Amino acid sequence: MPTLVEQMIPRRKLLLLCSESLLITAVLFFGTAMWPLALSNFWEVPCNTEQIFSLLRSLLTSFTIAFICQTSLSYNDLYDWRTAQNRAELPNRLLHSCGYALVMLSLLVLLVPTLFYFPNLAPESQTWKLILLLSICFLAVLGFRHAFHWFFYKWRFGERVLILGASQDARELGVLMTSNPLAGFELVGLVLESNDPQPEQPDGIPQGEKIIGKLSDLRQLCIQYGISRVVVSLLERRGRVPVQELLECRMAGISVEERESMYERLTGKLAVESMRPSYLIFGSGFIRDPVTLALKRVLDIVASTVILVFSSPICLLAAILIKLTSKGPLFFTQVRVGQDGHPFQLAKFRTMRQDAEKHTGPVWAQKNDQRVTSVGKFLRLTRIDEIPQCLNILTGRMSFVGPRPERPHFVNQLTKELPFYILRHTVKPGLTGWAQVSHAYGASVDDAREKLRYDLYYIKNVSLLFDLTIMMRTIGVIMFGKGAR
């Protein structure tokens, strides 16, 4: 079964992260310790305890700056393969990342002046040297990215995979696998789920849709191509699962897994339409560990309290602007569906006209919604309107991370149209969530279906580390104004 770590940081992505971390750390460490930028050659000083301590502190500083640089790369989607593979856009995003990294470093230096330490560099008078080294770091990352992608495209050292099945779902999984090279899987081809004659295929067919054999050839194909994993994607499984052939593969040390498991690993969401209840019942996940829930509650209280305290001046300004620019109450309250289907009152700063749904009834929010006030647009873009929901978190009706709470009208509609939708209410709703940082704003049944895939993945893999990851990604969403309406 896929694990959270495999999805969040696939093998090649982990290798890329570690490699770039070492690259940036090395450039900073040696650049500030040696000629021509260092005030003196760090390596010519006699080695003693103080010297070793300075060396380690300088190394730690270099690693800290590398972490900040990689955080900036991540917020610019440069660890998302779909964005990073665009070589024409890569230099522009790297330039933006360098700028954001410099801003973050400047703020940290102002807040904690002693955080960064380079014994052979005087930052107060030679800041240009550090800026130069950071520029060199990002140029090195640009060159390394090209070499990294070329290497894996040419030599393809991935885990070799066969898909058993040639249905539309199987073909879509094949295309998904070939379009996610950072996951570390190399698709060899599809195998027909029966022993019918193999159909003729035209030249140039995509690798994700290439049929290379039939069921009776499965074991021989695994030997011929050095297969290490078989993914079962049968259109109909009842009485048609080739137990003997799969057992032979399994006894030969080849991993065998279901399509849903591979789909989950590649996308970070569950395949709702094709998923059977048995996958949820007998699969891993959906564990409610008391310790995890207790830590999650502590995180909720701490995070919401910190936000309420530090955002109080902003909230006061927002309240004044709302009252000055539009008629109506300061807060917008609405009934939402919480854990186990219990309704609760959700409070936000009002961003729409007071009579926004007087003539229409409940409707989805649209892009450039005319009901939103001028101040409301800014509050939504910056997510300031969401801050009062921290009160719901403190009272225990919501969690900081979880599926977004929906209105009863839409819950009734979506429960009828979407399988497993009711499972969203098995946990507390959240201020932010895996769906919110992974998908655009939901304003239709199709969007709700897509978000359900992410919500169920979160419920299946809930953990403190996952919550912290989502909270960090939420910062990036807010900084770049993604998904606001």
* Annotation, overall tally of beta strands: 9
Strand order of the largest sheet: 3-2-1-4-5
Helix content: 40-55%
Spans with pLDDT under 50 lasting ≥5 residues? Answer: none
Mean pLDDT across all amino acids: 85
Let me know the largest β-sheet. Answer: 5 strands, parallel
Number of helices: 19
Class computed from helices, strands and strand pairing: alpha/beta
Would you spell out the secondary-structure blueprint of this structure?
Blueprint: H1 4-8, H2 11-31, H3 49-75, H4 81-84, H5 90-111, H6 127-155, E1 159-164, H7 168-178, E2 185-191, E3 211-213, H8 218-225, E4 229-232, H9 243-251, E5 255-258, H10 259-267, H11 277-282, H12 290-310, H13 312-325, E6 331-337, E7 343-349, H14 374-382, H15 389-394, E8 399-401, H16 408-417, E9 430-432, H17 434-438, H18 445-460, H19 464-479
Parallel strand pairs: 1-2, 1-4, 2-3, 4-5, 8-9
Antiparallel strand pairs: 6-7
Helix pairs in contact: 2-3, 2-6, 3-5, 5-6, 7-10, 13-14
Fill in the keyword field for this structure:
two-stranded antiparallel sheet; 9 strands; Rossmann fold; single chain; 485 residues; 3 domains; 9% strand; 5-stranded parallel beta sheet; alpha/beta; flat
Please give a structural write-up.
The protein has helices at 4-8, 11-31, 49-75, 81-84, 90-111, 127-155, 168-178, 218-225, 243-251, 259-267, 277-282, 290-310, 312-325, 374-382, 389-394, 408-417, 434-438, 445-460, 464-479, and strands at residues 159-164, 185-191, 211-213, 229-232, 255-258, 331-337, 343-349, 399-401, 430-432. The protein has 485 residues and is α/β, with parallel strands linked by helices. It has 3 domains: 4-155, no CATH class; 159-267, Rossmann fold (3-Layer(aba) Sandwich), CATH 3.40.50; 290-357 and 364-479, no CATH class. A 5-stranded parallel β-sheet has the order 3-2-1-4-5, sandwiched between helices. The relative contact order is 0.08. The model has no long low-confidence stretch (mean pLDDT 85).
